[in-house]
Task: structure prediction
Amino acid sequence: MARLLIRNGRLLDPSQDLDGALDCLVEDGRIARIDVDISADGAEILDAEGAWIAPGLIDIHTHLREPGQEYKEDLASGGMAAVAGGFTQLACMANTDPVNDDPSVTKYILDRAEKDSPVKIRPIAAATRGLAGQVMTEMMALREAGAVAFSDDGATIMDTAVMRRVLEYSTLADAPVIVHAEDCHLRAGGVVNEGPVSTRLGLPGNPAAAEEIMIARDLRLAAMTGAHLHIAHVSSAGSVDLIRRAREDGTRVTAEVTPHHLSLTDEATMTFDTSTRVAPPLRSAADISALRAALAEGVIDVMATDHAPHATYEKEVEFTEAPPGMLGLETAVAVTLDLVRDGTLSPLEFVRCWSTNPAELIAVEGGSLRVGSAADIVLIDPTREWTYDAAQGFSKSRNSPWSGSKMTGRAVATIVDGRLVYHSERGVLIR
Ligand code: DOR
Result:
């Protein structure tokens, strides 16, 4: 029997409200025991001195680019970036080529992931064919093939009647609809937040209202249909207010926020670094404060990376021409630990937002160290200092505004089904 004993750490498990000096014994890929000072003869020992022992992180918003854009990322490289970042499970977005709008694509992703990826992959299927916002996908068949949610992420379903039907059918498929909320007419060619920075830079602005208007519509439709609406990458204070009010009224809505929207303002675009071009755009300091408060309050349920790899040649163009998106998997922990350092989140809440809540949201096993559950575990050293260099990272792409920056805190070991798949000194251990 394969046994692994993780000891000397601070164990954090939001699913059982555990936070303390506890050891964790893993047997045959499952959690066997959580207790003080466990001794287990013959077990492999993993010393977690100075680290947190937590359920593996789950990213419900990742772009893995396979099939079709493997020059940016694939299931293997994205999976390695994930385990190096502390993730044990990823939900991958449907804007691949071909789009994941057919069960054959969903199955292809799952088959490839089984062979190539060190993390568990949960495909998100498109809500409409070709992400065109017009014809619904076969949601039941996609769900049966293994899709955990439906999303046209990257595009908004502008036709309100189509959106209504998508929400209605999602209740039959029993999976959330994840929306990329941006009114494309109001956003028009906007590439940065509309405000003083866009004016100073002379770049076309994308107003927060473009996001808020679509969220308001979708919340209304969610209330009407009873469907589970999940709002991706919330970026503005106004959006937070809308979500808060809808939750108070009993609407079934959940929401996520990215590390970049929690930490960078539109001032970061003043360098014209195209890795700061993201959709929705980086906004103001007041928006960041509202997003942080919403996470602490539980109005926003999860953090999610929106890891969006793009090739260097695609990003080395004028700001207005660059595709939106930045890498996220390898920097997420360090960037968002800032919220623990400034007292916005407790360590337990941090783990809840990165693991327990995401598991619940997409209804997969994970986010818990309960005895009997799959041994998906991360060890995080919240004080480890390191320098992130995207060129040395596991992702195939390099579009990160943090490349070259000094970071504090990182995943030091990642375990999937009881197997050590990443160790900060030894690297990724299975390929
Ligand atoms: O910045 C983004 N990039 N936002 C999205 O919603 C899509 C993503 C991508 O696919 O590159």
About this structure: The first strand starts at residue 3 and ends at 7. The chain has a mean pLDDT of 97.
